[in-house]
Structure formats: structure tokens, C-alpha cells
């Protein structure tokens, strides 16, 4: 036991270090997914967070390039109960320990993750630090006190792209690495959309391509007029980290886009859309993170099991014209909203999965249908090139 996790309330958990041999500070959260640790680690929504995985053994499937949701590990650290000493998967290109070393991210194994999870559920998510056991307690406490709180923190600038780029790769979850983009082109016209990058996942981009979009990704700082100058048929608002209320620039941009182009948002994009429409957000006690969260559609009664990763939520007291479309069956929080008159809708959870169930993937086709109806009504202009679907 050469490592320690110290929480800001003074609670400590012992463990053995792996990955990069360095200290790391972040908000300590837990994820209940059984698999998909590489997608979790590389999801930009985990920026400045130390992730504790509740599954008892992690690492047996290794890592590979295909499962990267972004170019690097975004989480500040990783905590597991048992690190598998063996990698056994036909898709593996490396092991988790080496992967974390390569990306400079520390891990802590042999931790009582059940006790840690129960503590976070009872007290709430809080700052923590992974460090060697010999580090003086006073030094750890000083580093924790100096670290910023997640509340009020705009982390989008840390994860957004530096410049606009086009994304053309399809083949979302379930495709073999050698099958990416293998679907034959059809005569169905592409619809050009702009995806605003608040910390976008590659699984989302692949889903957008799969339903027939020609996708251009732009930095979060891109102004509404610059977005509209690209003549998009729709705008997508991505997932991302931090406090949505602190992303004031993004909120203003989305507010300027409302009613001018169809809009679809996921996770942070959902929260920013709600704020742009006049709603409010609040911090959850310990957040929703995992692949087994039940969400009910209020119009149909249908229940989907969803993948989720968020620490903030939209308050239900929304302005007139904004409809709550879905709720979480565990705590009744808002999971979806829409404004029909402004051609905008969003979901709090992750319909692209990566990792998680695929039951809610239909929302990408719903966005395509919304864009098609706008094009048919003469409210948007189609692109000319065919697309892989």
C-alpha cells in the first residue's frame, strides 16, 4: 500500500499506485458501468475528475485506438478495486497500466471502492488527491484547499478543439476496427450540420455521420454569426465538463441561434440549451454516472436504460414554451426537453452509449428528421454531396 486517496473532508483510503507515478487532484466521482473504462477515461466530460469504478475488476480487455473518445485521457486519475494482471481481448493493443503511464495519469488499485462509493453517496462528490503515502498530510490538505471547486468552473476551454475541422467517419459502437466507414454511399443527400465542441465524444460524431450528416466541428468560442455563415442545416451541442452556468459565452451563442436553425443537444449541450431558453441548473449531490439509468418518455411512457455522465441537472421550473419530455426514474430529474416553436430539443443522457446501452440511439434519427422537415419547409439548405449511411 504505497498510495493514498485523501478526500477534502479528511477521509482517507489506502491503495497501491499504478499508471503514472505522480499526484493528482480532482473531484472524486464514481461510475457504475461494468465495462468501457477506456471510453470513460478519454471522455472530455471527466476533465478534472478522479473516477472510481465500481466494477470489481478492471483492465482485462486492455486498450485500443478505436475506443478512444478523444485524443488523450481526460480524467485526472483512476481508482479501482482490482487491476487485472492479464489482458485477454482480440481488440487489445495494450494494457491499462501502460496506457495511463503514456498519458501521465495516476491510478490507485486495491482500494475499497465499495466503501468509497457509499461515502460519496452519503456525503456527496468532493475534491480528492491521489498521492504517495509518504507525502506529508499537511501538504495534501494544502493542495486540496487550493484546488478550485467544480461549481462555478467553466472547463470547456480546456477540452474544446483549437480550430474547426470536418468529421466523416461513421460506424458507431459495434463495428470492428476494419469496418469503419464501410457502408456504401446512397443517393440520400447529406445535410450539413455544425457540431459545437464543448468536449465532444467521437462516438457522437460517428452517430451523426451514420444518420446522414456532413459534420463540421467548431470550437466552443465560435460566435453564432460564424456558425450561421457556414449555412448549416442544423446545429449540434455536444457534451462537456464543468458547471454549465459558468459557460456564459456558450449560453449567449446558443441563445442567438434559437429559432434560426434546428438544434439538438446532449449532456452539457442539453444544459446549455436549457439556460439559453431561460432555465436554470443545479449541482447534483453525487451525479449520474454509469450505464444503467432508467429514463421515461413522458409522452409515450416508454422507458429506456441509458448511459449517463453528469454532475449538474436542469431545474424543472422551465419557462413557458419549454416542455420537459423525459425524466429520470431514480430521482425524477429532467432528462429531456424541447421547444417545438424554436425547433430545439435535447437529452441529458448519452444516446450514443460508448459505453452503455443503445436503446436511445433513435434521437440521432429524430434530429435528422427535424432537419429534413426544416429543409422541406425552406428553412435550411441541403448540401450536395452524398453521405455514407
Task: Assign the structural class, choosing from mainly alpha, mainly beta, alpha/beta, alpha+beta, or little secondary structure.
Answer: alpha/beta
Helix content: 10-25%
Mean pLDDT: 93
> How many E strands?
21
Radius of gyration: 21 Å
What would you say about this model in short?
The protein is an alpha/beta fold and 389 residues long. Helix content is 22%, strand content 31%.
Record the SSE blueprint:
Blueprint: E1 3-7, E2 12-19, E3 24-31, H1 37-41, E4 49-53, E5 57-58, E6 77-79, E7 82-83, H2 96-103, E8 106-109, H3 113-123, E9 126-132, H4 137-146, H5 156-159, E10 165-167, E11 185-189, E12 191-197, H6 202-210, E13 213-219, H7 224-229, E14 234-237, H8 248-257, E15 263-266, H9 268-276, E16 281-297, E17 303-314, E18 323-328, E19 334-339, E20 344-347, H10 362-376, E21 386-388
Parallel strand pairs: 3-4, 4-6, 5-7, 6-8, 12-13, 12-14, 14-15, 15-20
Antiparallel strand pairs: 1-2, 1-9, 2-8, 3-9, 10-13, 11-21, 16-17, 16-18, 18-19, 19-20
Helix pairs in contact: 8-9
Considering the chains and any ligands shown, give keywords for the structure.
389 residues, alpha/beta, ten-stranded mixed beta sheet, 10 helices, disordered C terminus
How would you describe this structure to a colleague?
- The chain is α/β, with parallel strands linked by helices and 389 residues long.
- 22% of the residues lie in helices and 31% in strands.
- It has a 10-stranded mixed beta sheet with strand order 10-13-12-14-15-20-19-18-16-17, sandwiched between helices.
- Helix 8 (248-257) crosses helix 9 (268-276).
- It starts with a strand and ends with a strand.
- 51% of the residues are buried.
- Residues 174-187 and 381-389 have low confidence and may be disordered.
Amino acid at each position: 500500500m504505497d498510495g493514498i486517496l485523501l478526500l477534502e473532508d479528511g477521509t482517507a483510503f489506502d491503495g497501491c499506485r499504478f499508471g503514472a507515478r505522480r499526484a493528482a487532484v480532482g473531484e472524486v466521482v464514481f461510475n457504475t458501468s461494468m465495462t468501457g473504462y477506456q471510453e470513460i477515461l478519454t471522455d472530455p466530460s471527466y476533465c478534472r475528475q478522479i473516477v472510481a469504478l465500481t466494477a470489481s475488476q478492471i483492465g482485462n480487455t486492455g486498450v485500443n485506438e478505436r475506443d478512444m473518445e478523444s485524443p488523450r485521457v481526460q480524467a485526472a486519475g483512476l481508482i479501482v478495486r482490482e487491476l487485472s494482471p492479464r489482458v485477454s481481448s482480440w481488440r487489445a493493443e495494450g494494457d491499462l497500466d501502460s496506457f495511463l503511464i503514456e498519458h501521465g495519469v495516476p491510478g490507485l488499485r486495491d482500494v475499497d471502492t465499495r466503501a468509497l462509493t457509499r461515502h460519496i453517496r452519503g456525503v456527496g462528490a468532493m475534491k480528492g488527491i491521489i498521492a504517495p503515502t509518504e507525502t506529508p498530510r499537511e501538504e495534501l490538505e494544502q493542495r486540496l484547499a487550493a484546488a478550485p471547486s467544480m461549481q462555478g468552473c467553466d472547463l470547456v476551454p480546456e477540452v474544446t478543439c483549437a480550430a474547426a475541422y470536418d468529421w466523416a467517419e461513421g460506424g458507431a459502437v459495434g463495428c470492428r476496427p476494419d469496418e469503419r466507414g464501410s457502408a456504401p454511399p446512397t443517393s440520400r443527400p447529406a445535410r450539413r450540420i455544425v457540431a459545437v465542441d464543448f468536449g465532444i465524444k467521437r462516438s457522437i460524431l460517428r452517430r451523426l455521420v451514420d444518420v446522414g450528416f456532413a459534420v463540421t466541428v467548431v470550437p466552443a468560442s465560435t460566435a453564432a454569426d460564424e456558425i450561421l455563415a457556414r449555412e448549416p442545416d442544423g446545429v449540434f451541442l455536444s457534451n462537456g465538463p464543468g458547471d454549465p452556468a459558468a459557460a456564459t459565452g456558450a449560453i449567449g451563442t446558443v441563445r442567438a441561434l434559437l429559432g434560426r436553425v434546428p438544434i439538438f443537444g446532449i449532456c452539457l449541450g442539453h444544459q446549455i440549451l436549457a439556460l439559453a431558453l431561460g432555465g436554470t441548473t443545479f449541482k447534483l449531490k453525487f451525479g449520474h454516472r454509469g450505464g444503467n439509468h432508467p429514463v421515461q418518455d413522458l409522452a409515450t411512457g416508454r422507458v429506456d436504460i441509458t448511459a449517463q455522465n453528469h454532475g449538474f441537472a436542469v431545474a424543472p421550473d422551465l419557462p413557458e414554451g419549454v416542455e420537459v419530455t423525459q425524466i429520470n426514474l431514480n430521482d425524477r430529474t429532467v432528462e429531456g426537453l424541447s421547444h417545438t416553436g424554436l425547433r430545439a430539443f435535447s437529452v441529458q443522457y448519452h444516446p450514443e452509449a460508448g459505453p452503455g446501452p443503445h436503446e436511445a440511439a433513435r434521437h440521432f434519427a429524430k434530429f435528422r428528421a427535424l432537419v429534413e422537415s426544416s429543409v422541406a419547409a425552406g428553412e435550411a439548405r441541403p448540401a450536395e454531396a452524398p453521405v455514407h449511411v
